[in-house]
Amino acid sequence: MTLFETAIFAPLLCIPLLLFPQFALPAEFPLFWGVAAFAIAGGIAGRSGTFASAAFVTTFLGGFIGYAVFFGLAFSPLNLLFTVMHGLVAGVAGWASAKRHVATVRAEVKLENDEKRRCKMCGVRVGLWAKKCWSCRASLARYT
Ligand SMILES: [Zn+2]
Q1: CB–CB of 78/68 below 8 Å?
Q2: In CA terms, which of 79, 101, 124, 138 is 20 to 30 Å from 117?
Q3: Do 79 and 67 meet the contact criterion of CB atoms below 8 Å apart?
Q4: 3 state DSSP class of 119
Q5: How far is CA 137 from CA 65, 85, 95, 106, 132, in A?
Q6: What is the pTM of this model?
């Protein structure tokens, strides 16, 4: 579940934020850490998604809920703008990683279904044992 993955994982990565005030760190550092944590959580959660657009919605909601719960408890009162911003970061990261994931899966499926030795990414003829398309560099490794 992408939504719950993000909602649980992002706050876990933010736990060090509670310790930062004890160190002499720049004021901006916790902010960067928080954004990075949500980007990582969204990216990891998005990899399990099937559709990029669905991954965006679920990681956004996951990031939003995760931020609202964690920061609502840790640093109240809650800043709604920051909550939306962090959710958006997680959503974009989830969307990007899901898009990459879906693209590789589609290329492999297309090649497996192809009877002729043609690259399905660009349509050129490729050699019988070619591992990569000579034209568009698409991987043909799964074509057996
Ligand atoms: Zn090609």
Answers
A1: yes
A2: 101
A3: no
A4: coil
A5: 40, 37, 24, 15, 6
A6: 0.56
CB 37 within 8 A of CB 10: yes
Q: Which residue has the higher pLDDT, 115 or 101?
A: 101
Domain coordinates in residue numbering, the chain:
2-113, 116-144
pLDDT tier at 81, thresholds 50, 70, 90: confident
CA of 46 to the centre of ligand 1 (A): 27
9 exposure class (CB count in 10 Å sphere: 0-12, 13-18, 19+) = buried
For residues 52 and 43, give the distance between their C-alpha atoms in angstroms, rounded to a whole number: 11
What average pLDDT does the structure give for the chain? 72
139 CA distance to ligand 1 middle (Å):
8
Question: Could you tell me if residue 124 is left (phi over 0), alpha (psi between -120 and 50 degrees) or otherwise beta?
Answer: beta
137 CA → ligand 1 middle, Å: 6
